[in-house]
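May I ask you to review the protein record following this short note?
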Amino acid sequence: MADQTIVEALFLGVLEGLTEFIPVSSTAHLLLAGHFLGFDSTGKTFEVLIQLGAIMAILTVYFGRLWQMLVSLPTDPKTRHFVGGILLAFLPAAVIGALAHDFIKTVLFETPLLICIVLIIGGFILLWIDRLPLKPRYTDVTEYPLGLCFKIGLCQCLAMIPGASRSGATIAGALLMGTDKRSAAEFSFFLAMPTMAGAFTLDLYKNRDVLTFDDAVIIGAGFITAFIAGVFVVRYLLDYVSKHGFLLFAWWRILVGSLGLIGLYFLG
């Protein structure tokens, strides 16, 4: 196991933590960076398994609120409604992800040209949404109707195409269906927990026979830096999105996608 590989894993972990919860597609960034760095993980597991670090970041920042929800779940109808909405939103991704896992990992993850194009298209979609005169009808994330939660979950399925962005798909979909920016971002955070935990479990199970100790060390390195960077993003993203919208993220997607296309053209 080369020291260079560990350094790359640490870098990619930071990249994962910084991009997981913003609408720029962490998977696209990891796959493109890995492509140009020559970083090739066993079964493309690294790119999925280090998301556990991002999950831990949410648990750390929201621990007090999550604990309060757990305690009040048996007696508080509002808490049960919110938890039910999150689980309902998670359902489409759970079903489609399990059925299409092999296609996603062996085809979509291995197509950097598609990733770049989807990044650019998604950037222009965010620019369009940011300019719409949207009037929010839902501002309390715990009171989202169950039908709305399920529709946001359907939007999340778009993120199975690398470059689409899980947070971008859920936040944009929620906004178009009448939520405000802050509650949309918050719902996306909470939905990330079962979604990434499910992806982690499925991918670990699928690759349990091919992973080695060296793989575990590399994944652990990426996990640590993903967690640290993820804590920073979770703490500050909500306020930024509420005040500034998605303009910066949209142009960043277009920039990264365009640079990726240039890199693919000249470097292959």
Q: What stands out?
A: DSSP finds twelve helices and no strands in the chain. The chain has a mean pLDDT of 90.
